[in-house]
Amino acid sequence: MGSKVSSGIGGLDSMLKGGFPEGRAILVLGEPGTGKTILCAQYLYQGVKGGDRAVFVGMNEPKDRFLSEMLDLGMDFAQLEKTGGFSYVDATEVRRIPEQARVGRIPVGGRELGVVNLIDMIQESIEKVKPKRIVLDSISDLIFRFPLIEDRRPVILDLVEAIQSSGATTLMTSELLSTGDERSLQPEEYLSEGVLLLRTLRKGGRTVQVLKMRGSDVDTSPRPYSIKGNGLEIYATEEVY
């Protein structure tokens, strides 16, 4: 059994039997509003406070909004940035690249250019910060521009390989496309080394489940959680009813 990296959330660490396997790329999958970004922020925040260096690559929201929203939850990332332990990479422009773009006068595929630009941003931040923890939030808008699975797979693989070259333990978020016991698995689930699934139940409750975690013994039962003023609280010893 290899080294573990704390998730920053006590209940989740219990489910993971100590934390995420070090150096792995983990997918955080869930419906909108389930707290994927908050979970990832807690992972980075507690890690930096513990001495790790971290990078957050934000594709959904600009830096100022992220800092403000997380400060409301008691996580002062601006202060961590001042100490040099945290860096925010604003990648919101990547997903806005049109389908047909240009490099100078040369027409290029906009979606392919977006992937190249994102990987360049990630590698540049890795070289600069040398992080032990990375978050990529979210890969959905980028990879969903490739509707064919055979086109989407190499995009995900390139992203994962770029991140893994750093040796950092990485969380990537993605939107859940279908629900129910018979849902279709998404390509990013196969290509990630671990998958967390966040769900909202019909009665309003929330559950987190570890669908897989290669090289690690974990609790795979769905466990209830709530989003409070300080982030996610996961109840690792409670059953879902």
Name some characteristics of this structure.
241 residues, alpha/beta, Rossmann fold, 9-stranded mixed sheet, two-stranded antiparallel ribbon
Architecture blueprint of SSEs:
Layout: E1 4-5, H1 10-15, E2 20-21, E3 25-30, H2 36-49, E4 54-58, H3 63-71, H4 77-82, E5 86-90, E6 100-103, E7 106-109, H5 110-129, E8 133-137, H6 140-143, H7 149-164, E9 169-175, H8 187-191, E10 194-200, E11 206-213, E12 223-228, E13 231-234
Parallel strand pairs: 3-9, 3-10, 4-5, 4-8, 8-9
Antiparallel strand pairs: 1-2, 6-7, 10-11, 11-12, 12-13
Describe it.
This protein is of the alpha/beta class. It has one domain (4-234): P-loop containing nucleotide triphosphate hydrolases (Rossmann fold), CATH 3.40.50. 33% of the residues lie in helices and 27% in strands. The chain has helices at 10-15, 36-49, 63-71, 77-82, 110-129, 140-143, 149-164, 187-191, and strands at residues 4-5, 20-21, 25-30, 54-58, 86-90, 100-103, 106-109, 133-137, 169-175, 194-200, 206-213, 223-228, 231-234. Strands 5-4-8-9-3-10-11-12-13 form a 9-stranded mixed beta sheet, with helices on both faces. A hairpin with a 2-residue loop joins strand 6 and strand 7. The longest helix is centred in the middle third of the chain and has 20 residues, at 110-129.
How would you concisely characterize the structure shown here?
The protein has helices spanning 10-15, 36-49, 63-71, 77-82, 110-129, 140-143, 149-164, 187-191, and strands spanning 4-5, 20-21, 25-30, 54-58, 86-90, 100-103, 106-109, 133-137, 169-175, 194-200, 206-213, 223-228, 231-234.
